[in-house]
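Notes from hallway chat w/ T.B., transcribed later so I don't forget. T.B. wanted the structure written out for a chain they're using in a teaching module, and asked if we could keep both sequence and structure tokens in one place. Agreed to drop them here.
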Amino acid sequence: MDYSESFHPKFKSDLKKIDKSVVKEIKEKHLDIILEDPTKSETLKGKLSHLYSYHFQKNGTQYRIAYEVLEDDKIIFHYMVATRENFYKKLENRI
């Protein structure tokens, strides 16, 4: 399946808050992994049940990327990227 990517307007500012080596890895590796098989990640629950959460760890810190799969349009819409701490509360506020 070929998906294209779209990003929440605040996604870019999320990246600015993360270490540059992690941002590089996100752009070169993790976003591609999501594009290859977007439904492989964890499905969230409750108000966020339409979203997926991709997890990875770098330098002992856990990170999350929250996104939605828009099947009809074949788009992966990335909502947020951040460390695990308070991630889901911030995500609820963003949506």
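Follow-up for T.B.: The mean pLDDT is 94. Might be a good example for the class.
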